[in-house]
Design goal:
Blueprint (H helix, E strand, L loop, with lengths): L2 H4 L15 H17 L1 E6 L2 H7 L2 H9 L2 E5 L14 E4 L4 H13 L4 E3 L2 H5 L4 H11 L1 E3 L2 E4 L3 E4 L6 H8 L5 E5 L11 E4 L12 E5 L6 E8 L2 E8 L6 H6 L3 E4 L16 H4 L4 H15 L3 E8 L6 E9 L9 H21 L1
Parallel strand pairs: 1-2, 1-3, 3-4, 6-15
Antiparallel strand pairs: 5-6, 7-10, 8-9, 8-10, 9-13, 11-12, 11-14, 14-15
Helix pairs in contact: 4-12
The structure holds adenosine-5'-triphosphate, (1S,3S,4S)-1,3,4-triphospho-MYO-inositol and magnesium ion (2 copies).
(1S,3S,4S)-1,3,4-triphospho-MYO-inositol binds next to helix 3.
Length: 348
């Protein structure tokens, strides 16, 4: 759909208007064109679930008032025939789609594609996802940030116990599918309590040491330079006593989803205390740069019993921003800032 056709859905376009004369029409068209030119046009390619959670009416309304227009991308038509766009927002999977976006980035350097498909791919594998955090080795006066020790098992479940032993990983272990592509399967995680049961797991997977953290994690949303942190309930600590008694591998559900908000819960202050802001700002800035991404969130936990020992356990591309408090303003400001910085670059 051309942008002009898409505009027919806009509030300011009235189909019931009186017929106009030729000159009125062309003046009207010109004015409309001028109005259009002032809009920041954001093409989006998102699943219907994502459209519902992200493009909420209040957000679209605020964006429009600030001069931002969202236009659905038609995947069945060449991208170059659509728009013209200032920004392209996307969260779709598949090789074909990645190639379309890469080609479009080459032929339309003036358009900001959020974010580059190659950089997003980095987060689709739970090993490469956390590599940047490990490489960073962030240690400041506000605290240290690392990743839990982990091991990748590509195949052969019968060899897992040996591999775990060799690597010196300490039980319990969180077993996560290696691929993190947003599919339901990629969110099917288990907790393994004993060596013998490890053979029941299904590779390819990542085995990550379980870090006790008081049952609360921090979700850090990043939108360009903006950061927002929320608390979510998480898996409870595993005590030594429990570990000595329990055997087996237990599948666990989506424990830290939006419904598990712990922001208003009555928590032990040492568990609830948010990670220091300067530490998160350093982490976010470095990750933005190292990952080459502007839209992501990360799950970070504080080792129970410490004040300043943090672990990043997960990074998600274009997460559920619709559940981030104040996302409407944060996102619109971000989109406008992108266009302004492009404009500045061009005129300097
Ligand atoms: N190493 C760990 N130590 C302690 N708890 C962990 C660890 N890894 C994961 N968890 C728990 O398991 C949950 C799910 O893990 P993770 O965030 O890696 O999965 P996910 O399916 O990618 O989640 P999301 O829905 O955020 O994408 C976390 O929210 C946390 O409660
Ligand atoms: O599409 P994948 O990569 O699976 O990422 C999901 C995250 O893992 C979820 O945490 C998001 O849901 P919550 O915001 O309810 O946690 C979920 O948010 P959504 O349902 O608004 O899209 C997704 O961002
Ligand atoms: Mg997570
Ligand atoms: Mg995840």
């Amino acid at each position: 759909m051309r942008l002009e056709e898409e505009f027919s859905h806009c509030d300011n376009y009235d189909e019931e208007e009186e017929p106009k004369t030729m000159s009125q029409c062309s003046i009207g068209a010109l004015q409309q064109q001028q109005q259009q030119q002032k809009f920041v046009v954001v093409g989006y390619a998102l699943t219907s679930k994502k459209i519902k959670s992200f493009l909420q009416p209040k957000f679209e309304g605020l964006a429009r008032n600030k001069g931002i227009l969202f236009v659905a991308i038609d995947q069945n038509r060449p991208l170059s025939d659509q728009g013209p766009f200032d920004i392209v927002l996307h969260k779709l999977t598949g090789k074909e789609w990645r190639q379309i976006l890469e080609d479009y980035r080459q032929t339309h350097p003036e358009v900001t594609v959020l974010d580059p498909p190659d950089a997003i791919q980095h987060l689709h594998n739970r090993q490469s996802m956390l590599q940047c955090v490990a490489d960073m080795n962030l240690s400041t006066s506000y605290g240290r940030v690392g990743v839990p020790r982990q091991l990748v098992i590509k195949k052969d479940a019968s060899s897992i116990a040996d591999a775990v032993d060799k690597a010196g990983l300490i039980l319990p272990l969180v077993a996560k599918p290696l691929v993190a592509d947003g599919s339901a399967k990629s969110h099917e995680l288990s907790l393994a309590y004993d060596q013998y049961s490890l053979q029941k797991l299904e590779p390819p997977l990542v085995l990550q040491e379980f870090v006790n953290h008081g049952g609360v994690l921090f979700k850090v949303y990043i939108v360009g330079e903006a950061i927002k942190v929320v608390r979510r309930f998480s898996l409870p600590d595993v005590t030594k006593r429990e570990l000595s008694k329990v055997t087996g591998v237990f599948r666990f559900p989506r424990v830290s989803c939006a419904a598990a908000s712990a922001d208003d819960a009555d928590l032990d202050p040492s568990v609830a205390e948010l990670p220091p802001r300067p530490l998160l700002e350093r982490l976010a800035k470095e990750l933005r740069w190292r990952l080459g991404l502007r839209l992501f969130n990360l799950d970070i936990i504080r080792e129970h019993g410490t004040r300043d020992r943090f672990y990043v356990i997960d990074i998600n591309y274009f997460p559920g921003y619709g559940k981030m408090p104040g996302y409407e303003h944060i996102f619109t400001d971000f989109l406008l800032s992108l266009v302004q910085s492009r404009y500045k670059k061009r005129s300097s």
